[in-house]
Design goal:
Helix content: 25-40%
Radius of gyration: 16 Å
Oligomer: single chain
Structural class: alpha/beta
Strand order of the largest sheet: 3-4-5-2-1-6-7-9-8
Shape: globular
Order of helices and strands: HHEHEHEEEEHEHEHE
Low-confidence stretches: none
Mean pLDDT: 93
Length: about 220
């Protein structure tokens, strides 16, 4: 993951990956994870995602990690919140209400930060990783997730000859390759995702599969 690339995207507001509403997989499948209602939830590479608002509205406190401070600032400004910011373990942490957003490199986050989490939602983190970094990300997710804690993972699969990522394609076989050592894996839903992805159509895709996975840390 090229830090400069992502920081530049936020600086230029080239954030076609941002969704104006919570992801419908979250709404449809979160209950299948049986995360305790008041548990902390980790959202890797959170941007200014409305998924965090959905989680907070359903009783959770949210730990988000994000490389771009501008994304975090926008998240709080759009909700008329003024966070308190402190430096912790190489990150700038902005806290307000149920949100604690950690600005820095997710792959360097101390597992002590997430030792009390009850769930993880990954809509945009794994798919942001090029092939060469996906196993590093998967290993870090395992390190940050306590035993027995579930993850709701969203993946995309497409013909890589049609488009250069991000988002990068993650086939079902690749999910198994990345996570089966440390997680129990269940496919919750697979659907045609192209009609809802005009941005990716415009980039040349003719077919796109979107999948929701339940991963449970062994």
């Amino acid at each position: 993951m090229d830090h400069t690339f992502w920081l530049d995207r936020w600086q230029k507001s080239e954030i076609g990956f941002h969704q104006a509403v919570a992801h419908d997989f979250l709404e449809r499948h979160w209950s299948a994870l049986a995360v305790p209602k008041t548990a902390e939830v980790l959202v890797p590479l959170c941007g200014k995602s409305n998924d965090m608002v959905w989680l907070a509205d359903h009783g959770h406190s949210v730990i988000g990690t994000e490389l771009a401070q501008s994304a975090i600032d926008q998240f709080f400004a759009e909700r008329f919140r003024t966070p308190a910011a402190v430096n912790e373990a190489g990150f700038t942490v902005s806290r307000a209400g149920p949100y604690a957003l950690w600005c820095g490199d997710h792959l360097t986050l101390d597992p002590a930060v997430t030792r009390r989490i009850g769930g993880v939602f990954d809509r945009a983190a794994l798919v942001a990783m090029p092939h060469t970094m996906q196993q590093t990300y998967a290993d870090k997710l395992a390190a940050l997730t306590p035993s027995g804690v579930p993850v709701l993972l969203v993946s995309l699969d497409y013909d890589p000859s049609e488009m250069d990522g991000p988002p990068f394609p993650i086939s079902p076989g690749r999910v198994d390759e990345l996570f089966s050592r440390d997680f129990r894996i269940t496919l919750l839903e697979k659907r045609d995702g192209l009609n809802a992805s005009q941005n990716l159509k415009n980039r040349g895709l003719t077919a796109l599969q979107e999948m929701a996975w339940k991963l449970v840390r062994r």
